[in-house]
TrEMBL record:
Keywords of the record: Acyltransferase, Cell inner membrane, Cell membrane, Membrane, Transferase
Chief location: membrane
PANTHER family linked to this entry: LIPID A BIOSYNTHESIS LAUROYL ACYLTRANSFERASE, PHOSPHATIDYLINOSITOL MANNOSIDE ACYLTRANSFERASE
Keyword flag Transmembrane helix: no
Signal peptide from the UniProt entry: none
Pfam families noted in UniProt: Lip_A_acyltrans (PF03279)
Annotated InterPro entries: ACP-like_sf (IPR036736), LipA_acyltrans (IPR004960)
Cellular compartments annotated: Cell inner membrane
Protein origin, superkingdom: Bacteria
Any one GO molecular-function label of the UniProt entry: acyltransferase activity
Protein name: Lysophospholipid acyltransferase family protein
């Protein structure tokens, strides 16, 4: 199989598009909406495996930062708020509607840096923040097409962001979630989910996210009334 055919198949798998959508003249960055910075990092991973290339890291120091996975329980912005209180270096990924003025932006009010998820290069910007010592939290129970997982006995797909940040930054992966206690007070729990960085392979991302989704199931069953989800999570 020639290189162009291999690249075409990789792009087809990553973007869930037919291989006929790609040829030697296909423009990706800035031209194809599906090809965002997350897709770029997945492509780098697949290319490095398929062609035995060594993608060098950026010289990160994993003692100063973490990749934190979270989910939509109770007040689901509690995690970046708690991480800001603990470290003063909290960064998250979100979409802030244009109609919300900066004076009412809850992240700015709390001193939290956030990356606009719809901007070009969002995932690369998160990596840059980690390089500067940030603690990055990502909601990982969202629907995305990065990796295949089993969730409550049904096959679906999931984002690989927390695992990929751990892999490319060489940092441990934590799990954090908030819930409302019996006394009516909000509590945030932080678990040491993976003490070693995730390996930089698609299979490792899939395995890490499946382990995370297994833990999500247990948490949701423990706090079913606190998992906030109003969309079709298992759509295809």
């Amino acid at each position: 199989m020639d290189i162009q055919t291999q690249l075409t198949e990789l792009l087809s798998n990553i973007l869930s598009r037919p291989a006929t959508d790609f040829n030697a003249d296909t423009r990706l960055l800035g031209e194809m909406p599906d090809f965002d910075s997350m897709a770029l990092m997945l492509l780098l991973t697949e290319v490095s495996q398929s062609f035995s290339l060594d993608v060098q890291d950026a010289g990160f120091d994993s003692e100063t930062f973490y990749s934190v996975a979270t989910l939509h329980t109770c007040c689901y912005e509690l995690v970046p708020l708690a991480l800001q209180r603990l470290t003063g270096r909290s960064v998250t990924l979100t979409h802030m509607p244009a109609f919300i003025p900066s004076a009412h932006n809850p992240y700015q009010q709390a001193g939290i840096n956030y990356v606009e998820k719809k901007q070009d290069g969002a995932f690369v910007r998160l990596l840059q923040h980690i390089q500067q010592g940030a603690v990055v939290s990502l909601h990982a129970d969202l629907f995305a097409r990065d990796v295949n997982v089993n969730f409550f006995g049904r096959q679906t797909t999931a984002p690989a962001g927390p695992a990929m940040l751990s892999a490319f930054a060489g940092t441990p992966m934590l799990l954090a979630y908030g819930c409302i206690g019996e006394n009516g007070r909000y509590q945030v729990y932080i678990e040491s989910f993976m003490t070693e960085p995730v390996a930089r392979t698609k299979q490792a991302y899939t395995e890490a996210m499946q382990l995370l989704y297994d833990r999500f199931e247990r948490l949701i069953l423990r706090y079913p009334e606190q998992w906030y989800w109003s969309f079709n999570r298992w759509r295809t």
